[in-house]
Inverse folding.
């Protein structure tokens, strides 16, 4: 596997469920990001991890809980979500040598019922 | 308040013609700009970028122009090909900040007709 992978690609969950999104990057990057893309809105940055340390939480509700066990893996734990949380969740990574060029995964299409 | 604006949600051009996608920004601290392309069911992929010390950057069929005084940049695709049909996102960053935070526009859907 190369690049940035995300699983699952599609997820339907009820408001009382708990689920997790997974992101893995095979690029040797040291920074990883979670973005949310809702219909007709710009990509919204949610969290940033740099060398496994969370360095940014962009006022994200606590029902979203990120985890970065190492520089290659990033998780987004979801619990008691709302229907308005339905969106495409994108993971990205970047390296210090090309810090502005973020590499994105294919995203997880989340539907909250 | 949107700091990066792509005011055209969609653009349709004929194959072989020029496609011009526009982007405006409001934050004068931004000093590096990127364009991403996104196909359905895929994540955005980096296309081309430009630093604020330049006013033009070219890569094959893609050229980005930056007008700092107008806080405006544009992406030119010449000649346009059907495979260029995708959503194009403009993004901006302040290089002096931390975390390499990109601010994105809403995107413009480009359709290139054969």
């Amino acid at each position: 596997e190369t690049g940035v992978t995300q699983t699952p690609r599609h997820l339907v969950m009820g408001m009382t469920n708990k689920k997790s999104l997974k992101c893995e990057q095979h690029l040797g990057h040291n920074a990883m990001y979670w973005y949310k893309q809702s219909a007709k809105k710009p990509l919204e940055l949610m969290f940033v991890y740099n060398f496994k340390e969370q360095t940014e939480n962009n006022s994200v509700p606590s029902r979203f809980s990120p985890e970065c066990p190492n520089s290659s893996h990033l998780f987004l734990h979801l619990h008691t979500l709302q229907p308005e949380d339905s969106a495409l969740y994108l993971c990205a990574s970047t390296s210090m040598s090309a810090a502005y060029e973020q590499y994105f995964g294919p995203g997880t299409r989340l539907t909250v019922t | 308040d949107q700091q990066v604006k792509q005011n055209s949600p969609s653009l349709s051009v004929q194959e072989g013609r020029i496609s011009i996608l526009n982007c405006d920004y409001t934050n004068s601290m931004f000093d590096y700009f990127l364009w991403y392309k996104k196909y359905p069911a895929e994540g955005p992929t980096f296309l081309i970028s430009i630093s604020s010390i330049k006013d033009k950057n070219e890569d094959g069929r893609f050229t980005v122009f930056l007008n700092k005084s107008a806080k405006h940049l544009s992406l030119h695709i010449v000649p346009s090909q059907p495979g260029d049909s995708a959503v194009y996102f403009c993004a901006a960053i302040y290089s002096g900040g931390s975390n390499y935070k990109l601010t994105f526009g809403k995107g413009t859907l480009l359709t290139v007709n054969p």
User: Anything to note?
Assistant: Chain A has a mean pLDDT of 90. The longest strand of chain A covers residues 18-25. The radius of gyration of chain A is 13 Å.
